[in-house]
Amino acid sequence: MLAHGMIGHAWTCPDMIGGGEIGAVGGQQGVDQEFFVRYAQIAALSPMMQFSLPPARVLDARHLAAVHSALDVRTENLPLILSLVDEAALTGEAVVRPMAFHAPGLDDVTDQYFLGPNLIVAPVTEKAATHRDVHLPKGQWQADDGTVHTGPTRITTCTPLDRIPRFTRVTDAAVTEPPGDQDDARWRPTR
């Protein structure tokens, strides 16, 4: 997803949640329910989201509730996603951006990403993970759980099944573009 965005596919999305081989899945026994949830969480904060299988048909109550939680997070962030889609139409910049796009020096961090310049998404990508490390660049960052962290730093955060770890930049002026092109009026800080 990150690579596609950097080669000009601004509205890229992950593959279908549930996989493409619908015929290979015959119910709850055929689905890795945790994988289904974590995949839905990644897709929830990308430009597009699509299911190949109805979650209610293949998930138990606990995993279905976690998918609903991911959909709630998407709904909360949909205005941001749509504004980034509009921006991408004008600039060609990716909606989902590698960490190094807004934080030089974080080129090797490939399991988290920026959704625009002020929101870091750190989805779970390891089976049965209850915690994950998150790299935060310079600045103050408020996590979705309310904690505030000062970067640059690396933290460990809890990752229960129903959580998509996210960190919002907390400053007087939100950054609207990576450093380097401040002469262009489009990229001046907003208030």
UniProtKB/TrEMBL annotation:
Key words of the record: Glycosidase, Hydrolase
Record InterPro entries: Alpha-glycosidase_related (IPR050985), Glyco_hydro_31_C (IPR048395), Glyco_hydro_b (IPR013780)
A Pfam family it matches: Glyco_hydro_31_3rd
SUPFAM superfamilies hit by this protein: Glycosyl hydrolase domain
Domain Glycosyl hydrolase family 31 C-terminal: from-to ranges: 92-169
Superkingdom: Bacteria
Stated name of the protein: Glycosyl hydrolase family 31 C-terminal domain-containing protein
Organism: Actinoplanes couchii
Record lineage: Bacteria, Bacillati, Actinomycetota, Actinomycetes, Micromonosporales
